[in-house]
Write a structure and sequence with these properties.
single chain; 390 residues; alpha/beta; seven-stranded mixed beta sheet; two-stranded antiparallel ribbon; 11% strand
């Protein structure tokens, strides 16, 4: 039996040199299934001749989960901070094996046979992800998760990271200790699954997946579909600034600039059949939104770098080489003062009773755009400088 360890105990229950595989199971009120999972994992270790340990991370259970896990032979540690990611991170930190297997304590994954999951690690892969979608048991996954949530998040991760996994949200994975250390995981919620794949891809870790069985839960699910899905999307938006902000912002800015040019260059706009289109307001709005997105792109790039998600790419390098806070403030002030000057000229023309027509309308659109963008650039300069403080 592996000894218990509480959150305040720093003595390893198992000698690191003697452990090949650590199985980490987060647990919140799983007294009906946690002992089964522990016995299956330890049974596999024994049958496979693997020196292993099972670490159950108690995430605030109010039932007898803790006692059941200890009786089954697990080493139990406490993690008071609630969350799927928090529990796993604590378990990973406590583990001593050269290979770490993560799963759940609800008996939805088959822990009695880990051979297929771990085997690719011996072939040079750094992380192996299970694919539940090829062998789902009836009733094991809700229709919305099977056909909407999981495919959508998998597609987004494939787009943002270049991974080719078919089930990015599977919670059963195996990875080497070196891979764990290189990933430098931080997420405390369900988005940990996405962080692992995104960081692995960006740090050159080799990933593959294997089909696994997936069974219905016996106990109540802790998953909150919309909230947890949003946590994944939120994580990806904050850590993929090029896709989320910079490229869309650049497109909007260019379209807005073209629209304003049309407004200023033509008196009547562009003929569209029997109508004339003059994108007076659209141009200014697109310019303002596009510039905001560009600023967010820079800010989130710096944030993502500080979190270890991305390295210093071209965008961050250009910002640091050419856009000091002083230069950004000068640009913002120049745009803002230009807007004030144009508005002053328009006001003078109005006082003098000079007709302006479409010409002054276009100038007014440019003036307002300069005022808005100038103010945003100034505020954005302070924001990015604060994020980039060493």
């Amino acid at each position: 039996m592996v000894s218990e360890r509480t959150s305040g105990d720093t003595t390893a229950g198992t000698n690191a040199a003697q452990v090949d595989v650590s199985v980490v199971l987060p647990c919140l009120n799983e007294e009906e299934t946690v002992a089964v999972c522990v016995r299956k994992a330890l049974g596999w270790c024994q049958s496979a001749g693997v020196r292993g340990e099972v670490i159950v991370v108690d995430n605030g259970s109010t039932d007898r989960s803790r006692e059941r896990a200890i009786e089954a032979g697990a080493r139990v540690v406490d993690e008071p901070r609630r969350g799927y990611g928090s529990a796993h991170l604590r378990g990973f930190a406590e583990s001593t094996g050269r290979v770490i297997v993560m799963a759940d304590a609800d008996d939805t994954y088959d822990l009695s046979d880990l051979d297929a999951l771990i085997a690719p690690l011996g072939e040079g892969y750094d992380m192996v992800v299970g694919n539940r979608l090829k062998s789902l048991s009836p009733g094991s996954m809700a229709w919305s998760h099977r056909f909407i949530g999981t495919p959508l998040l998998t597609a987004l991760l494939s787009l943002f990271s270049g991974s080719r996994l078919g089930d990015s949200q599977c919670g059963m994975r195996a990875f080497t200790r070196e891979a764990y250390e290189r990933m430098q995981l931080r997420s405390t919620g369900m988005e940990l699954a996405s962080e692992m794949i995104l960081k692995s891809a960006r740090r050159g870790l080799r990933m593959t997946e294997v089909p696994i069985s997936y069974y219905p839960r016996v106990t109540e699910s802790k998953l909150h579909a919309f909230r947890d899905a949003w946590r994944h999307v939120r994580f990806l938006l904050l850590h993929t600034p090029g896709y989320a902000f910079f490229v869309p912002g650049l497109v909007l800015f260019v379209v807005g600039l073209v629209s304003l040019t049309i407004t200023v260059a033509t008196q009547t706009g562009l003929p569209l059949g029997s109508l004339n289109w003059q994108p007076l307001f659209a141009g200014g709005i697109l310019l303002a939104v596009g510039s905001n997105a560009l600023i967010l792109g820079v800010a989130t790039s710096l944030y993502a770098e500080s979190r270890g998600i991305v390295s210093e790419g071209r965008l961050i390098r250009l910002y640091r080489e050419h856009l000091s806070l002083e230069r950004v403030l000068l640009l913002g002030a120049t745009l803002f003062l230009t807007g004030i000057a144009l508005d002053g000229y328009i006001f003078y023309r109005w006082l003098s009773g000079t007709e302006g027509g479409a010409h002054l309308s276009g100038m007014a659109a440019i003036a307002q755009s300069c005022l808005i963008i100038g103010a945003n650039v100034t505020l954005g300069g302070f924001l990015t400088a604060l994020i980039d403080i060493e």
